[in-house]
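Subject: Interface between my chains keeps coming out wrong

I've been trying for a while to get a sensible model of this assembly. When I model each chain on its own everything looks fine, but I need the whole thing in one frame so I can look at the contacts. Pasting all components below, labels as-is. Any help appreciated, I'm running out of ideas.
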Amino acid sequence: MGKYIVKRFIMMIATILIIATLTFVLMHLIPGSPFEGERTTNPTIQANLEKFYKLDEPLHVQYLSYLKSIVTFDFGPSIKKPNESVNELLARGFPISFELGMLTILVALLSGIILGTIAALRHNGLVDYFAMTFAVIGISVPNFVLATLLIQQLAVTWDLLPAATWSSPLHMILPIIALATGPTAIIARLTRSSMLEVLTQDYIKMARAKGLSPVRIIVRHALRNALMPVVTILGTMLAGILTGTFVIERIFAIPGMGKYFVESINNRDYPVIMGTTVFYSSFLVFMLFIVDIVYGLLDPRIKLHRKEGDA
Amino acid sequence: MNGRKQKKVSSHVKVLQVDNLQVSFRTYGGEVEAVRGVSFDLYQGETLAIVGESGCGKSVTSNAIMGLIPQPAGIIKNGSVVFKGKELTGMTKPQLRKIQGVDISMIFQDPMTALNPTLTIGEQLTEGLRTHKKVSKQEAKQKAIEMLALVGIPNPTERLKQFPHQFSGGMRQRIVIAIALICEPELLIADEPTTALDVTIQAQILELFEEIQQKTDISIILITHDLGVVAKIADRIAVMYAGKIVEIGDKRAIFYTPEHPYTKGLLNSVPRLDLVEEELQPIDGTPPDLFSPPKGCPFTARCPYAMEVCDHVYPFTTTISESHSVDCWLQDKRAKVLQEQS
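Reply #2:
Try treating it as a single job with all components included. I did that and got this:
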């Protein structure tokens, strides 16, 4: 296990390095610079500014100092908001985005698995049809459309829930519903189909022949096997939810990282672009690593490491 | 069979009594009458083999006894299954669960799929015990180790922590047997327990059955289509065809003096090593469609001795000896003449 983690860790670093390099290249391929705006800046001032932010140096030197900033995890000040460092922006925005993302995953996993399991147990019954209709709608409707509809109905027309910001648990309900519906639908469908398959397996029949309670058969014997596909897509789903938070944060005026991320690209705020991208991708790569570990815990046949003497 | 210790079924305690059991399945195509009136008794310490070709209803019969007919498609239409004085067919699921795995256990055909790949075999062994009997975790573990040793698994203590994929097919079947026996049931239903195993392992597993039966006096219903297996461990044999038991009797009676043309056909279709020149004689034709089972004897279309009556009326059960009976019109006095003429 230790060996595997070390190996994975090296691969994670390589992945992040590639992402960082690509970001750097793409960033400098976009025309424009942080100092180009509607007003034309005095050439001398611009030259001085570029010198101050070391943008006048050759690209490979900039690249190296950028790599250094990643290793030391100090991205320096934002160009647009000079009184704030990138690290401060991350520290302020990320906890909120993280909260939104994790609550969404939690809600999606719980409701998706429960819905899918019930649908499988009531195969071709009323509950099954209802759940699968919901799933198709959930997958088809984009989260920003759903978000707007939710605000329109629940917040404006019926005035049940607050429409925006992130200040109390009540405020969290709408953004989480908007963001979690799609993943819930996907998880429900996956759970249902793999559950249906697992329920026909001999070991389920054997568990019945042991006289075990239905709850134990479902939870202990069936679900564990049926969840493998769900864990598999969890990795990519995480990426989807993370990028989804950008849109949802904007709609619900949530002061998370999404705002800074999008703004920084529009402003060519190089340090912020680098900081947020590298931070986000590191986070994602780390989550994928956790998913792989969970995979191995769920199914002992999947070996994360090679051990001698195993049949 | 020679050289084998003569197993004595001394006891005449009736463990199981199946009477006119009828099981049907509702499908899109209509109702399949899988079991159409099966009756037999089973005594303590006895091995009854149910033989017949694929689709004759032998597995459905065993599932019905066990209360494992898939719902809601399958229904027990008629008949009774009495286990030690208790009627099983009308029982609710919670009532059945008190019997499943405790009093009646089942072994499945394919050991590669019968064990849950994500649970350790220790857990799969002990969970039945811990559900049904009030034992501590430690006691259950001890019992599991004992059971693994009984079925011949080396290093049982260490093996408990392993997962099914770390065992070979034969070992897995031994584990399945250990799981079935851990609550010390009185009846074991083995549904083709050796079909998926290779021949040398088959012999070992059959010997294990004999050994266990000698130790525990358990009754066994053995579902199989392999007459070699039957010859080795059965005491009595029931021959099933198209959802009915067409002949039932002592092993010797069935092997040496079979009366039903289907039984004769089955025995002739087994390759024999001692008769080199004789050709294998398959039974021509296929079993009838159980969507619309024939009114008369279902074997009529394939039977070399078929008579007019066979097509219209199902034959009565004729008792040949105390322990041998057959459903065939050839047993009728009026048919004897015809038989000798032909």
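Reply #3:
Confirming on my end. Chain A is about 75% helix and 0% strand.
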